[in-house]
Amino acid sequence: MITLPNECYYEIFNNLCHDYKNLFSCALVNRQWCRIIIPILWRKPNLKDIRVIRIFLLTLNENELAPLIPFKINFPNHPKPLFEYTNYITSINNSLHDGVMNWLVYEGFKMHAAPDVESSLIAMILRTSENLKSLIINEIICNQLVFENLYENTTVLSISLCKIRDDYKSKRK
């Protein structure tokens, strides 16, 4: 049996980068394929998906969890993921806000926690990602924790701060 070099598999799987369902199925074939496919799947994850938000929450450290204590949020208590998925992310956009809101609604938590949850997630992604190049965030979530991690991150090439969205203003009251 002839095996292909990993570079060939990468090119093949990279052509399926928008076909998440089949790419995920291929990741289950064997460890070699999984190691190649996971970075492709997580380059640009669907940030609106609450399952992605749950995985992100498992990666928060004590400093990132501390601002969330007053909200009495019950975080997932699953084991840490096998991969550090956030390491593969290349860009973050405003859809993270939608994912956080979806997760809060699904879990039955108050919406006024959204900026703090989003801020902690951004700080964690900045801390863990070695491939993050582009960051688009709402200005309301910029705090010391985010700026400290942004200062430490050497991979970000582009940052855009957006104006406060109306739904943030109304839900923070």
Main sheet strand line-up: 1-2-3
For the biggest sheet, the summary is: 3 strands, parallel
Q: Give the number of DSSP strands.
A: 3
Query: Which class do the helix and strand fractions yield?
Result: mainly alpha
Describe the fold and architecture.
With 173 residues, the protein is mainly α. The chain folds into 2 domains: 1-41; 44-172, no CATH class. The protein is built from 9 helices and 3 strands; from the N terminus they run H-H-H-H-H-E-H-H-E-H-E-H. It has helices at 6-14, 20-27, 31-43, 50-57, 62-65, 95-107, 114-128, 144-152, 166-172, and strands at 91-92, 134-138, 158-162. Strands 1-2-3 form a 3-stranded parallel β-sheet. Strand 2 (134-138), helix 8 and strand 3 form a beta-alpha-beta unit. Helix 6 crosses helix 7 (114-128) and helix 7 packs parallel to helix 8. The protein starts with 5 loop residues before the first helix and ends with a helix. The model is unreliable at 168-173 (pLDDT under 50).
Secondary-structure topology with pairs:
Blueprint lengths: L5 H9 L5 H8 L3 H13 L6 H8 L4 H4 L25 E2 L2 H13 L6 H15 L5 E5 L5 H9 L5 E5 L3 H7 L1
Parallel strand pairs: 1-2, 2-3
Helix pairs in contact: 1-3, 2-3, 4-6, 6-7, 7-8
Protein name: F-box domain-containing protein
Organism: Gigaspora margarita
InterPro entries: F-box-like_dom_sf, F-box_dom, LRR_dom_sf
Characteristic terms for this protein:
single chain; 173 residues; mainly alpha; 2 domains; 3-stranded parallel beta sheet; globular; disordered C terminus; F-box_dom; LRR_dom_sf; F-box-like_dom_sf
